[in-house]
Design goal:
Strand content: 35-45%
Shape: globular
Helix content: 25-40%
Largest sheet: 7 strands, mixed
CATH architecture of the largest domain: 3-Layer(aba) Sandwich
Number of strands: 11
Number of domains: 2
Structural class: alpha/beta
């Protein structure tokens, strides 16, 4: 079952409470180090979120053309506010081809097998010849040992609880958010699903050539919790 726009918008409201921005620079470094080794002019970031990744790549590499797309209107608005080109549109409905396409920090994890196959075919169709697709996926260790459990966090305006479990390749998180409105709190609740995929799955479903498969350890635990992957349209 795909995640709804409501669940994506709820995630957008609380992303800053989840420690993503603290962990992101270490992951972004893998993208940056690879991009520094190739010549390219255009980059499309799918699932651009609030635009943090795009702005950092643009500042570091001075890319001729960058664009972000996301299915969450709230996220797209944040990216546009940063002065970037962004659009609320599905990749498969987008026009144009790019030298580089990226899907950063869990984006592929949100797609079940059927949607992942369709998405990766659209990636291939939107890549120029010799173009590259950069992405990351959670490892099995990441799902089973990092993501599972209960999480509670709050600030002056919000109180968030996340209860998560992982079974049979599916990670299910129940997000419950209380937002302060005057003297009361407004409650929102959504289920967000993620799915375990392997590097071999990505190669098989996309028809692209594997160039890089690197372990990533964001949280300093015993094993890597993510895999950084580069696929090429040859």
């Amino acid at each position: 079952m795909p995640n709804s726009s409501n669940s994506l918008d709820l995630y957008a409201k609380v992303e800053d409470l989840l420690g993503v921005k603290e962990a992101a620079p270490h992951l972004y470094a893998h993208y940056l180090l690879f991009l520094q080794t190739i010549d390219f002019d255009t980059l499309l970031d799918v699932g651009c979120g609030s635009g943090d990744f795009l702005i950092q790549m643009q500042q570091a590499l001075d890319i001729l053309q960058v664009k972000g797309i996301d299915l969450s209107p709230a996220m797209v608005s944040k990216t546009v506010e940063m002065g970037l080109d962004a659009e609320c549109v599905d990749l498969c409905a987008l026009n144009g081809k790019y030298d580089v396409i990226t899907a950063v920090f869990d984006m592929l994890n949100y797609l079940n097998t059927i949607n992942l196959k369709s998405f990766l075919m659209c990636v291939k169709n939107h890549l120029k010849e010799d173009g590259v697709f950069l992405c990351d996926i959670n490892t099995l260790y990441g799902f089973e040992n990092v993501a599972v459990g209960s999480f509670i966090v709050d600030d002056d305006e919000r109180f968030l609880t996340v209860d998560s479990e992982f079974e049979a390749g599916e990670y299910i998180s129940e997000f419950t958010l209380f937002e302060k409105e005057n003297t009361c709190f407004k409650k929102s609740q959504e289920i967000i699903r993620q799915y375990y995929h392997t590097v071999d799955d990505l190669v098989e479903y996309s028809g692209l050539k594997l160039v890089v498969s690197d372990d990533v350890n964001l949280y300093g635990l015993e094993e890597s919790d993510k895999t950084f992957v580069v696929l090429k349209k040859a």
